[in-house]
Design brief:
This protein is of the alpha+beta class. The protein has helices at 3-9, 12-19, 25-28, 30-52, 73-83; strands spanning 57-61, 67-70, 89-93. Strands 2-1-3 form a 3-stranded antiparallel beta sheet, with helices on both faces.
Length: 114
């Protein structure tokens, strides 16, 4: 069977799957990804950053462990992407339990997220 004949028998999805890199199990599960980012933050950066950069944001490349600090989340991620455009980042607000707070209201007249 020629390569052309074989390719005609294989679906587009199967061809794309064969050409795509296999996903790392870490990135298949958002919970494991977040845990990996938090572990890197705790072990490498937390003590120093909470003394010197409290309230700022840090984007951590979960693959390399590199950290990029800025005064807002978008800039921290932008700094990381400039260095590693294919990086996968975990965002932390230094000194806080979460990067953002969220909430909701049942008031239909409320025009913002609380």
């Amino acid at each position: 069977m020629s390569k052309v004949e074989f390719m005609k028998q294989v679906s587009q999805e199967e061809r794309m799957a064969a050409l795509s890199p296999r996903p790392d199990p870490l990135f298949a599960d958002p919970q494991k990804f977040a845990e990996a980012g938090e572990k890197i933050y705790r072990e490498r950066y937390q003590v120093e950053y909470e003394k010197e950069h409290n309230g700022q944001f840090v984007a951590i490349d979960v693959v390399t462990g590199a950290a990029y600090i800025s005064d807002n989340a978008a800039r921290a991620l932008e700094r990381g992407r400039k260095t590693n455009s294919s990086g996968i980042f975990h965002l932390v607000r230094i000194g806080s339990t979460g990067a953002y707070k969220s909430g909701y209201s049942l008031n239909v007249n409320c025009d913002r997220v609380l």
